[in-house]
Amino acid sequence: MAIVRPTLDQLQDIAGRLNMQLTHEQAAEYLALMQPSFDAYDLIDELPDFTPPVRYDRSSGYRPSNPQNLLNAWYYRTEVNGAREGKLAGKTVALKDNISLAGVPMMNGAAPLEGFVPQFDATVVTRLLDAGVTILGKATCEHYCLSGGSHTSDPAPVHNPYRHGFAAGGSSSGSAALVAAGEVDLAVGGDQGGSIRIPSAFCGTYGMKPTHGLVPYTGIMAIEATIDHAGPITRNVRDNALMLEVMAGADGLDPRQAAPQVDAYCDYLERGVSGLRIGILLEGFQLANQDQRVADKVRSAIARLEVLGARVEEVSVPEHNLAGSLWHPIGCEGLTMQMMHGNGAGFNWKGLYDVGLLDKQAGWREQADALSASLKLCMFVGQYGLERYNGRFYAKAQNIARFARAGYDKALETYDLLVMPTVPIIAQPHPESDCSITEYVARALEMIGNTAPQDITGHPAMSIPCGLVDGLPVGLMFVGKHYAEGTIYQAAAAFEAAVDWKTL
């Protein structure tokens, strides 16, 4: 059907918003000249959209009630059975609720998206089903994925499996909680500031943020394309490596991917760490809110790696702190433009756009006051940078990010891996529902100091559990060269085989 044409008054209003003034006569002349363009719009409107075929049967499912959802970690339950054979046959998986599963609601932890139902499966979903998994549903995630705590989701706060009322981490909160609680074998998370690794550290799971672009992000709601990552969360290293083998590789639809280097990650699991060079990243132990008990647990775990034959020594990488600072203009201005003004899509990239999601996300403007405080904060910073400085700090930060990557790369010429605490603290209590904005934001962002830098530099990083403090898990993080996920798995598997982390 024909699209609605603007009136003369509307065209004059549009011109005014573009800082132009049109007379009535000029507007009429331009309006006539615009008609061939609108005729092309009509043609496009009549054509069917391109959407990948849905190859596996599923029901729309249901939203579980509290007796079935004690951790609030499920957003939606369904069952989608994959291939009968494959690397992951017999395994169950939960999908972070920013990942499209055709026919099943997706809310991304945010009320403006409630009621949205994707029409196609994300690439990672199809690949997992082809490998034999059974998808059991959508895991709760934080409000537009803008929190490292687990109190911001519009469905409900997600509870830590080790202590009710405490943070499960975010933003892949439900994903890690469900794996840790044994409700699923595997989960898929997303990571723009630590959202795979933070919940893995808080919940005692294994969470891999792969090299940027290794895993296609197609069919996953974007925050900011240069820091968008997706990866596996599991209860053991082997399952994690298997998942990455299944999910990794170009799909021809994601512009985040150039020529990703895929590896046989399970081949690294039996190699041990003898002779492996590991640099203890000093800056990773120097965050202002570092809990010394967490630091001690991580140091103790590193000592175990040394006993196993790794060559360990301290190293300084000042660019670690630089990368953390770069996250603010890149993350805040980028998400304000792509996820909010760009309705979850933005412009200027070739790939698979979800037009239905774009239409639904546009409704955030009618519910803007209900956006989470952590998202509002990022938007205020981003909008100010865009309006007052025309995006120059975003642009400059992207340029300088090369120096941050080079700092890691230089250290990784000497060391096979860098190691540090995943997060500086253990899981904290959920804030009260009537808490101040300051407390709400603090509980959402206080833990990202070590995890955000690798989203800027694109290096692979994995959190593994390495002990308990006050009965709550502690995470150790490995960082490797670009596409050196295999080396990370090599060290993680050696530690897992030698140590019962819960006894440390």
* Mean pLDDT over the residues: 98
CATH architecture of the largest domain: Alpha-Beta Complex
Reading off the top of the CATH hierarchy, the class of the largest domain is best stated as: Alpha Beta
- CATH topology title of the largest domain: Amidase signature (AS) enzymes
Name of the CATH superfamily of the largest domain:
Amidase signature (AS) domain
What's the domain count? 2
Spatially, the strands of the biggest sheet line up as: 1-3-2-6-8-7-12-13-11-9-10
Largest sheet: 11 strands, mixed
Written as H for each helix and E for each strand, in order along the chain, the element string is HHEEHEEEHEHEEHEHEHHHHEHHEEH
* Cα shape: globular
Which structural class do the helices and strands define?
Answer: alpha/beta
Give the distance, in angstroms, between the N- and C-terminal Cα atoms.
66 Å
Radius of gyration: 23 Å
Strand-residue proportion? 5-15%
Extended strand count = 13
Low-confidence stretches: none
- Share of helical residues: 25-40%
Question: How many distinct helices?
Answer: 14
Protein name: Amidase
GO molecular function: catalytic activity
Pfam family, one: Amidase
Organism: Pseudomonas laurylsulfativorans
